[in-house]
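Thread: sanity check for a docking pose with fe (ii) ion

Original post by kr_44:
Hi all, I'm comparing my docking run against an independent structure prediction. Below are the sequence and the ligand SMILES. Could someone generate the full complex and paste the structure tokens? I mainly care about where the ligand ends up relative to the chain.
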Amino acid sequence: MAFIDKTPATSVPPGGKTGVLIANLGTPDGTDYFSVRRYLGEFLSDRRVIEAPPAIWQPILQGVVLTTRPSKSGEAYARIWDRVEDASPLRVYTRAQAEKLAARLGSSVPVAWGMRYGKPSIRQAVEELMDQGCDRIIYLSLYPQYSATTTATANDQLFRTLMKLRRQPAVMTVPAFPDHPAYIAGLEKSVRDHLASLSWKPQRIVASFHGLPKICVDKGDYYPDDCERTIVALRKALELTDAQMPITYQSRFGPMEWIQPYTAPFVKALPEQGITRIAVIMPGFISDCIETLDEIGHELRDEFIEAGGEELTLVPCLNDTPMAVDLIEALVREACPPSWAKESGLAS
Ligand SMILES: C=CC1=C(C)c2cc3[nH]c(cc4nc(cc5[nH]c(cc1n2)c(C)c5CCC(=O)O)C(CCC(=O)O)=C4C)c(C)c3C=C
Ligand SMILES: [Fe+2]
Ligand SMILES: [Fe+2]
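Reply from moderator J.T.:
Ran it for you. Here is the predicted complex with fe (ii) ion included:
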């Protein structure tokens, strides 16, 4: 195996130096067919995401999925694209979260951000930290609920990078945080603030999480349990019943059965029960992205109105608000081992 032949520009200070790497899923560089194709090709070739044997899946992916889906997804990305930053919202928010965290932690703790798929890569982010003299990395993947398809593959990508380093930093991976008090407090405030900004009162607050193929759960992925933990804690904080804040799963991909109830049929059935004004919160996402802004904010809203609904409002994700930075800072400080905290000043 070839090693990365790279000597960090700055040597490690005596006593060591801790850096923070925040990781997210990844997103295309542009809305054009080839940018989206490149992104989807990398994403959907990940065997943590699609477990089918490559001999079966790759011909389907290359021959069918990557010829048709990039154009459709590209149109959806174009509807939500940040034209000022010329980037997708997921990239804009992840970068802003890293910059705001860096401001909180001060200049002695470098912060980098990287994407599991696409740019900047996890390897680029690791090199950025090592170039600043870091020999210890706190690695936080920004998924509140654990899944092998997200958290584990983000960790895999870090470990793959480390496998190629001659001078390897120590790493601390931060676990998922489905009912961390700072996350629940942020969600609670975002719901209260959002409801206060409306001139009408939603009859339901539907909590829609990204879905997962059911077979993943049958094989031991405990993602739905983590989603339940989030929602039980949030209902308690807001004093809502199960019926007032139901849980559903969105973003189904492919013909297999995914975990249920599915968001779209659930929401489309509400008007015939007399429920025509709803809010949707998506606590599986720290940052707004194509799945929240377009799939729910555009597609689902249109379908709800067509089914007789009157109002559908989105509770924004935490994005780069102070509540998001409070959460990320708390997670990083709590994960920092005491022996690292001494040099970095990262104690909680
Ligand atoms: C089998 C396919 C997929 C699995 C499993 C899956 C799990 C999963 N994904 C997220 C979070 C996000 N997914 C996003 C986009 C997205 N997801 C899939 C497929 C699977 N996801 C696709 C094909 C796409 C691309 C968009 C599209 O073409 O429809 C995003 C947003 C990315 C962005 O750029 O905005 C996020 C975030 C979770 C949490 C999860 C498992 C629990
Ligand atoms: Fe996804
Ligand atoms: Fe989607």
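Residues 6 and 23 are 22 Å apart (CA to CA). Hope that helps with the comparison, let us know if your pose agrees.
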